[in-house]
Amino acid sequence: MSRSPSVLPRVAGLAPVKAGVNGAIRTAARVLESGRPGDAVSDQARQLSLLLRKARRTRFGRDHGFDAILAEGGRSPDRLVASYRKHVPLRTYERLWEEYLSSAYPTLRDVTWPGLIPYFALTSGTTQGATKYIPVSREMLASNRKAAWGMVRAIMASRPGSRLFRGKLFFLGGSTDLEQPAPGVRQGDLSAIASLEVSELLRPYVFPPIELAHEPDWEKKLAMLVRRGKDEPISLISGVPSWLLMFFERLLAETGKSTVAEVWPMLEVVVHGGVKFDPYRSAFDAILGSPGISLQETYPCSEGFIAFGDPTTGLLRPITNHGLFLEFVPVDELDRDEPTRHWLGNAQVGVNYAIVLSTCAGMWAHLVGDTVRFESLDPPLLSFTGRTKYSLSAFGEHLISEEIEGAMAAAASESGAVVSEWHAGPVFEGAPGYHRFLVEFSTPPADLEAFRLALDADLGRRNADYAAHRSEGVGLPMPALVAVRPGAFADWMRAKGKLGGQHKVPRMDGGGQLTAELASFFRSADAVTAELEPGSVAGRP
Question: Locate the GH3 C-terminal domain: which residues (predicted)?
Fold first, then answer.
């Protein structure tokens, strides 16, 4: 007698079954995490070899001599990597799209990866960029699942009494309303793709249900998530920090509770990623309301799941055995014709690297646009430092996003403020010009000028070039500061059609055009609550 397809998910959702599953996963996690860690360097060499063998008959593989690379590499990891670099140059997405993807899109079959690409993750990287169509293969879906399970395993091993799978895992993602540009091919938000690929047996452990995840209107979806989610036994929630905070605020308004822990007493972990978390930390600590809720960093991108926060150290643990080959280029060499390419076999601690991926979806030697720094090599542990395009050097100050993120967090802490969003860019007025910071506070400082002074001083401590350009006689004045009301950046994102899901506010604008656009939008929307003009070259304005 055949069993109805709907029976197994119903059985999987029964409380005794969930308790048994939770116990089994917790035991397996403890055993696997206590074992001897693998050799990350050997893992990476093996992944590169497997990727090359899999894709050697594709158009890209033939064009770049994958057979020759494998022959030249032999059994030596170093020779294999050196041969790969010789035959396969670094590429931006734009170059790969122009040379290989655009002519075949939307039906990519045996172009850069064997078989038909079933999905494209649509992303602009930031709200400034044009849409990118990132290939997502079946192998990449499996890679992402393996990485996610690795993260869950590490979480549960670090929490001996974890009840993660006795509750529900909440993924605050975008709409799952995917387009179909060709038969057998769909495209849309990466979280939409992941939601559709969830096994039926996992549905009882996941929120939101598929019919709610399909809602395309972000505002309507957010309201429905609050109404239906408040009574669910949520044990984990994952999302972009700014959207998580927005959801939490609405959740508390709906329930009348003062903290998230009161609404969801089973909540163990908040998974965040996509941006530096430091400026958000105090806001999350206050709104969560329980030291027992862990903050778990994760580093996925549309091209692949790169790393997750190590529960012991808090640093990012790169995943080295799931279909990605990672390379690292010193950021200060990116403008060279042939920058140095490192891998786990010869990377160095303390260097700010641009990360390069070769993936099981056919992205080869691809400059992702993110920057990282190794804090340890044995085991490999990373810090996310920002974006390659997120820098301010209009006046020779060479500020990177990590430095501004840290200074923003330090100024907030010193002044008792909580920052929810921010953006910085140059203004080319006067001689030589100045920086403008646009800051949304969920808790404003008692003294905005004190916040600016703390921000300016901390930037000078972190960056010698900034300090030199701010010194007397050089001429770079105290930055201008525009404070905006809560929700102002979300209003701008809504106006750009980028509200919700995985979209993020662009932190920095090297050219100043976006900074000017944001300032104009906030003023026209009557969203500015206070404004400080650029101050004196040194000291208090």
Answer: 402-508
Helices of type H across 175-307: 190-196, 210-213, 218-229, 241-255, 260-263, 281-288
Paired tokens of 102: 């655009």
Q: With residue 121 as reference, give the H or E element that holds it.
A: strand 119-123
Tokens for 301, please give them: 């991108």
Spatial distance between the Cα atoms of 30 and 16, rounded to a whole number of angstroms = 21
The backbone torsions φ and ψ at residue 417, rounded to the nearest 5 degrees and listed phi first, read -95, 165
| DSSP per residue, 140-194 | HHHHHHHHHHHHHHHHHHH-TT--GGGSEEEE-------EEEETTEEEE-HHHHH
Residue that is written with structure tokens 């000291």 in the block: 539
Strands (E), 378-458: 380-387, 391-392, 399-400, 418-427, 434-443
- Residues ≥6 apart with Cβ < 8 Å to 16: none
Given this model, what pLDDT does residue 385 score?
81
**How is the chain split into domains, by residue range?**
1-389, 391-532
Give me 514's structure tokens: 């976006």
- Model pLDDT for residues 261-300, shown as the tens digit of each residue: 999 999 999 999 866 677 678 889 999 999 999 999 999 8
The class (CATH top level) of 1-389 is: alpha beta
Strands (E), 428-497: 434-443, 480-484
In contact, 454 and 414? CB cutoff 8 Å: yes
CA atoms lying within 13 Å on the CB side of residue 227: 7
What are the pLDDT digits (tens) for 328-354?
Answer: 999 889 888 899 999 999 999 999 999
The identity of residue 27, as a single letter, is T
Polymer length of the chain:
541
Q: Which two tokens stand for residue 333?
A: 């060499």
**Cα end-to-end span (Å), the chain:** 82
Q: How far apart are CA 499 and CA 490, in angstroms?
A: 7
Q: What is the pLDDT of residue 489?
A: 92
Radius of gyration for the chain, computed over Cα atoms and rounded to the nearest angstrom: 24
CB 349 within 8 A of CB 328: no
CA distances, 86 to each of 64, 65, 66, 111, 421 (Å) = 10, 10, 11, 21, 42
> Whose structure tokens read 């930031």?
126
- pLDDT tens digits, residue range 18-41? 899 899 999 998 888 877 777 999
